[in-house]
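#struct-queue
[09:14] JT: dropping the first one here, sequence first, then the structure tokens:
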Amino acid sequence: MRVLVDTSVWIDFFNGYPSPEAETLAQLIEDEVELLTCGVIVAEFMQGIRESEALGKLEFHFRDMDWLSPEEPKTYLSAAELYRQLRFRGITIRSTIDCLIAVLAQEHGAFILAKDRDIRLIVASGLLDLREFPLLNHQ
């Protein structure tokens, strides 16, 4: 099983915020589930780190994970098309980055673990063959 963990979940997890998503991530780590990341998730997360010491530790953590790479230009075109189709259906996604993350998860057959309104809207739209990882105690 492979799980792409979104920025919002990493933020809760590293800040010790007890969200259902962060608790699920802690269990996935304990169970040694294959966790995935990608460049935009790491960039979003790392830009908010204030302490240099923490930055180094977190860089090491992310370097050790499997990184999903876009299939250029296909992935980017698919993300743009997803955004367009959602907008056509009256669904407003605040960032194309969420469309890119969702398309990456689909291309690599990964579940997605997110605490993000836009990711949930994308999954619920049915436009992608994408599954959210079920939360602990919320299945």
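[09:21] JT: and here's the second one, same format:
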Amino acid sequence: MVEPESPTNRTRVYVDMVGDLFHAGHVALLEAARKFGDWLIVGVLSDEVVAAYKRRPIMTLAERIAVIKACRYVDEVIPDAPYTVTTEFLDRHDIAFVVHGDDISPEAVAEVFGPVAATGKLRLVRYTAGISTTDLIQRIRMSS
């Protein structure tokens, strides 16, 4: 997968996500993340990584990548992103900030973003209430 080159003078921001059944909450997260810089990189977690900590995604990795790449706030996608974000990962991709929804628990912050959070590069943004992939799945089940 070839991604456009970002000029070195850009502030590169990173979000990792599953992006299953891409919805308005995902868009709000990406829009908020983009405000921390001018080049947004989205790491998309593999089906196997996601299945290890929650349910297996409904959409394939390729489908999720295609939809996320189509979002106007996204400049670059990293397939098979790591579950744990390290400072080495940030350095390798020249990332200034990592953004996540504020619905994450302190334990999950420590597990997934520990070293990054310690550097002050983690930014939490307001979680969009009332919409989630789990909610969409429930709506679909109720409508059938």
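[09:30] RK: nice, looked through the second one.
[09:31] RK: The beta strands are 12-17, 39-44, 76-79, 97-101, 122-125.
[09:31] JT: good to know. The CA atoms of residues 48 and 62 lie 13 Å apart.
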